Queue: 2 jobs
Job 1
Amino acid sequence: MLTTIEARDAILAAMPVFDTVTIPADKAIGRVLRQSVFAERDQPPFDRVMMDGIAIRFADFDSGTRRYPIQSMQAAGDPAQSLDAGKCIEIMTGASLPDGADCIVPVERIAVKEGIAEIDSDYGAEKRQFIHARASDHTQGTELLSPGKRVSPMDVAIIASCGLPEVEVADHPSVVVVSTGNELVPAGMPIEAQQIRMSNGPAIVAMLKQHGHDDCKHDHLVDDPALLRKSIGSHLDDADVLVLSGGVSMGHADYVPKVLDELGVRVEFHKVSQRPGKPMWFGVGPKGQPVFALPGNPVSALVCCRQYVVPALDAAAGRTASQPEFATLTEDVTFKPKLTCFLPAKLVSNAAGQMLAMPVHTNTSGDFASLAGTDGYVELALEQTKFPAGTTAPLHRWFAA
Ligand code: AMP
Ligand code: MG
């Protein structure tokens, strides 16, 4: 049986590299960048006025002038005017500094009467005050974003500011999520006492979409080998990635590994030394498609999706791996099986800035409702059985931005 690290490495080694596509920049949120983004111009592109007020020559102020005839008005977007000595230009935030001006006095500190702006007698101006100097943020050609970054709203601003209407990102893989099980009934359909609401499929689709993998479809298949063969076979023809849940354990109706084998999906591993999620199966389809077969128990399915499927899709999209995170246990935990334990937790931080994990014990791997208030799970090492309060453990958030 593979360890969690071996399972992760086997998956990453088998992942393809998704294509690059060019899309409109305003659709790029959540996608993985495949290009560098360089500054189109110096930033700011000109000496930018930071206050509404008047632009003056500091030398005039320094030699005692407090009353300035208003020469003209200049708004943001107007071409820079030329300021005469001893006068002022009424100026707006975002305007380009008039030629000859080197000081802005805020509108709150002047009184305007009959075309004269008079500066408050107690006001102390400084040279170059309220001027955001050209290129003081960065110069033209500076690399502002690098390939491998997931595009955030701030990145959308940068891409737009660099004048790019389009941007290169990783293509979406087409993902088919398959829920297997005779007992499963989707929301909205009548249900009998012995049946179960199908929750894994919608949750897996939601988790992948939350991580920016938008092209996910869902299918439900009953535990019938012939039907599984036909339907999974057709999904293998169409999809770039398959994520199944259920049917991978040792029961009489757990046909998934056998059917996948018959369809030419090469098994990379079956079972990982972890709880939840020990029965997890992974293989590679005839066209090189990754095929994840997650256990059906809802806590297992969600943990395995977050632990293995999300990082694998991110890697294939070319996303730079994020820094590992850690959290400190708030209570003693004992876990006897010789397995890695993924323990769901709520996160709080203390006044010392430490991230604390409050364990949430699920009532078996079927108890997915207890996950509702959790932020992720901590990883407790296979070699250890006792984890006293204060132990620091790797943290996996359900959603890591
Ligand atoms: P299996 O892995 O197919 O043996 O399923 C293990 C347990 O998880 C059973 O109790 C199933 O009813 C439940 N289960 C399997 N698939 C789903 C699903 N899509 N949604 C909710 N529960 C499921
Ligand atoms: Mg089943």
Note: Residues 179, 181, 183-184, 196, 198-201, 245-247, 249, 251, 254, 295-298, 366 surround adenosine monophosphate (ligand 1) (CB under 6 Å).
Job 2
Amino acid sequence: MALYSEKVMDHFRNPRNVGVIENADGVGEVGNAKCGDIMKIYLKIENDVIADVKFETFGCGSAIASSSMATEMIKGKPLSEALTLTNKAVAEALDGLPAHKLHCSVLAEEAIKNAILDYYKRNGIPYDEATFGAHSCAHCEDGE
Ligand code: FES
């Protein structure tokens, strides 16, 4: 079996929503200390809905594919729904990632949450801190 699914290869070769949104309503940036990869997500938000989303990822192919898929999954969705997106759902939508690459999809989940948190903070919107707490990725907790 190939290491990467066709969907991963497709989103890696033709990533959707790459770029920057000038005057974004929320920006989230996360990095993985271990591999040094960085992901940045820009959100345009209208009436609590993600009207547009773009990303810049300086990272591995799985991180690029995960960002591309994750942005597709939250575009046009209400913030409440985007906040429920898990790295597991992103990996499943990509027809799976190799176990040692699952942490790459965690970056996408965290970058989106950070961008929404940034939007809440900028606008003084109250939020539930638990929503933005530590993610549960066994790999990262193992320090892998
Ligand atoms: Fe760093 Fe994939 S190896 S995000």
Note: The chain has one domain: 6-141.
